[in-house]
Amino acid sequence: MSVSKSCDCYQRNILIKPNSVISNFAYQRYFQYSSLTFKNETMNYESHQSPFSKAVLTSVFVGISVTLLCLIYNMIFRESTGYRPADFINVSSLIFAVNLVFLVIGLIYFFFLRAFKKGDVVFEILFGLLIIFCAWRAAHAHMQNPTLTSEFRTLLIGVIIIMGIGIELVPLLFHNKKFEDAVL
């Protein structure tokens, strides 16, 4: 059975095309519970993330982004300074450590949201202080070769600062509706 003319299905914005094989009735029943619209070619759906999954997924997304930034910083730093030792900071340690740290950060952030009334503020202040402390300690790091110590410190402090900015972005992105709709 075919439909001989174009018509809009009731309350659905679905365009029935001429000479369609699907009958009007079957077409309406098939899309009765769907929120698909063919005119706009978009699909509207509601994503109901739990606070736990939202915190962890936001943190993991930021961790992947920070990993890429750390790898780019590492590459540019090593090329511009000629610093070659890769005992502590190398590609594999950046990939695994940064992503693992951000997974744990997501768990900690969820805990802060549950444990404190203003968990976002407590999280940002505590981790802001922790980042400053880590950067301060990294400024006093020593290696066996004194000529490489300065370059190692600069590389380590850069990675800590990039990770710190990412950690501070987790609460901001957690509450951003556009981020949730586009990414999560």
3D structure, described in words:
The chain contains 6 helices and 4 strands; from the N terminus they run ββαββααααα. A two-stranded antiparallel ribbon has the order 1-2. A two-stranded antiparallel sheet has the order 3-4. The chain is 64% helix and 4% strand. By secondary structure, it is mostly helical. The protein starts with 6 loop residues before the first strand and ends with a helix.
Number of helices: 6
Which percent range fits the helix content?
Answer: 55-70%
What Rg do the Cα atoms give?
26 Å
Largest sheet features? 2 strands, antiparallel
Poorly predicted segments: 1-12
Question: Shape from CA axes?
Answer: elongated
Strand fraction equals under 5%
How many beta-strand segments?
A: 4
Number of domains: 2
Distance between the termini: 42 Å
Structural class, please? mainly alpha
Strand order of the largest sheet: 1-2
- The average pLDDT is 83
SSE ordering: EEHEEHHHHH
